[in-house]
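Morning. Coffee machine broken again, so started the prediction first thing and wrote up yesterday's gels while waiting. Chain of 245 residues, entered below exactly as on the submission form.
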Amino acid sequence: MQKILIIGATSAIAEACSKRFAAQGHSLYLLARNSSRLESLAQDLRVRGAAAVHCATFEANALETHQALLEQVKAELKGLDRVLIAHGTLSDQQACEQSAELTLQELQTNALSVIALLTLLANHFEQQRHGSIAVIGSVAGDRGRQSNYIYGTAKGALGIFLQGLRNRLHKSGVQVLTIKPGFVDTPMTAAFPKGPLWATPEKVAQDIDKAIEKKKDVLYTPGFWMLIMQIIKSVPEKIFKRLSL
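Came back before lunch.
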């Protein structure tokens, strides 16, 4: 049985992951902003077989609260073996282009708040010398495109941070997994037209679960996104800048 913290637990991918973890009999601690949705999810997970489910409200950008909250999580779970960080926003690119304040807010939520949490969590796992840290990034972080470069910047910065963290924690026996989903059909993307490249949260959760068990470093999900992004990254800049992507 693992003691698992899920941050951003009411997001579609995190919720799908939590249902898999509950069915496996793990103990869970859920953090998210919406208290009513949290409690409803917690009740569902108890029915699905979780050994225990705790929950608390969480504001990612209230950085000053992170340390005390993590101490509370470790005390109530009586330890911590695994963390999944899944909170974030899907940036409005056009609005960000018109507002430096909004741009910085999106970078704060999608990159800096995660990095702040990881800094604290890394010290716990390094001292413990075992465990897994899994963080949901995005294929958008692999190359800047005009359609979403604010969001992509945040995910790209997060990806570099995770590379360094993985290098640091490897000697301590701690897994650091960077998760790079492609298009996922969630409430956050409800307005987008869907096609064959879109995946369900359940498919992504299945891939995440397997990647954690196999101690992978980087997960593209679904797997065909690795090839797609290799092609996109290989296009020379003088050509790429002329494309409408």
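The mean pLDDT is 97. Going to sketch it on the whiteboard this afternoon.
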